[in-house]
Amino acid sequence: MTADQPLVCPTCQGVLIAPDNSAYTAARGRLIVSNGYCQGHRAEPQQPQAPAETPASTTATVHLRRPAPVPASATPAP
After folding, report:
1. pLDDT tens-digit map of 13-57
2. How far apart are CA 70 and CA 6, in angstroms?
3. Phi, psi (5° rounding) for residue 37?
4. Higher pLDDT, 10 or 1
5. What span, in angstroms and rounded, lies between the C-alpha atoms of 40 and 14?
6. Nearest to 12 by CA among 31, 47, 40, 45
7. Cβ(53)–Cβ(74) under 8 Å?
8. 3-class DSSP assignment, residue 70
9. 38 within 8 A of 9, measured Cβ to Cβ
10. What span, in angstroms and rounded, lies between the C-alpha atoms of 49 and 1?
11. Residue 15: beta bridge partners?
12. DSSP state of 17
């Protein structure tokens, strides 16, 4: 983390999620234990992240068919 990126949320004082694993130090861990994580009250909007590449097989649309209705005359009368 650089000096211009805060560790805690200015609204709730919760620890912000780090951009990479190397930012999680012992000091940051103690801060997480004492303050908890931010619940999404950030005053400034986050930079949008590029969408991750997904295989074509996971993005394919599956069309489901509804079962045919059963006519009322098909059921026996009591």
Report:
1. 899 888 888 888 898 999 999 999 998 865 555 555 556 665 555
2. 62
3. -85, 155
4. 10
5. 9
6. 40
7. no
8. coil
9. yes
10. 17
11. 8, 37
12. P
